[in-house]
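Illustration 12: DUF3159 domain-containing protein.
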Amino acid sequence: MTSLDKPTTTDQDAQASKEVTEAALFEAFGGLRGMVETVVPGLLFVTIFTINKNVQISAIAALAVSLVLVAVRLIRRDTVKHAFSGVFGVAFGVVFAMMTGNAKDFYLPGMLYTLGLALAYIVTALAGVPLIGLILGPVFKENLSWRTRNPGRKKAYTKASWAWGLILLGKCAILFPMYWWADTTKFGWVLVALKIPPFLLAVYLTWVFLAKAPPPIDVFAEMEAEELAEKERKAAAAAAQSHPEA
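Figure caption equivalent — predicted structure in token form:
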């Protein structure tokens, strides 16, 4: 292999940055398991309702499977934040559906949450504090350093927030009209079908934007280095005082 064939340090750094970005996105958004836990309750609800048209049985089954998913994570001592958020979402859906007797209302809290989240992404991007940066900053150990010290990453986070906001708005533009005119079974299956693809598209675009951005500034490493330097300065000062003749 010639020197031209060997990967450069820049290429290696870029590859490492992409790998770190992939790992961070999986951690932040729950990965494959988190997606499954998001889809299963709604899928079970619409499947049971399609068969027996019973709102109560369908809702209780969806809530039960959500609780089982949380219990499995607790037993295995895994991260439970995504599973717990799913339980709360399903619980609100169950309450809505039980109160109104309308099976479509099982999905209404999640739809409202999606709309609110879409607006939050867009508003924070316009305000110069993109939400995706607030979410991923701690994951990358950069906290808010990207706001003032890393304009390339701030630009990437802004683009990603716009992508998330517009994709989620597009999803809402499909679901809310269907909520009013479609029958429950058709609406439920369309909603389940739209769970994963928009999410994957948003995650992919986020990965593209961040993979091309400058690497994050590890503020934790900086603080550790500063603490170490401070200890060395104190040690040197103490040594100088104990041996003044030196």
